[in-house]
Amino acid sequence: MLDSDASTAKTLTLVAIILQVVFFVIGIFEVIALVVLFSFRPSVTTSTGTTVTSQVAPISGLAIISLVFSFALLIGIVWIILDYLLIYKKLKTERVKEAETPAIVLGIIQLIFGGLIPGILLIIAYVKIRDSENRRRYMPEGQQGTPP
Prior knowledge:
Blueprint (H helix, E strand, L loop, with lengths): L3 H36 L3 E3 L5 E3 L5 H34 L3 H17 L3 H23 L10
Antiparallel strand pairs: 1-2
Helix pairs in contact: 1-2, 1-4, 2-3, 3-4
């Protein structure tokens, strides 16, 4: 059974993963909205019979924006998978020590690459994992209380 610090770290990791999934879904809706927005080209027929098409943005602009958002969504999927496999799954199976390094590394990397809130949550989870390990290291098995 996980102690309170490891359990808190597991919860923080789960919240970080859920936030990343929410951001991922929002990103998908943004890409869909951009495609719809940029593909809509209203046309007007003049009195002389010619059709004038108004183009909101050039196709190359749409392609660049779509590539940027697609790359960001791909990175989001990678973060979700890595956080789940390297941190949450290990905490769930009570391998607390093995989740320590991935928590700090992924937390820092996510802070650098724009995952501010999940990055902070993972760094806090790392601190809680360290607290759990310190408690386990300094306390005999079965004893309650706080470490010296």
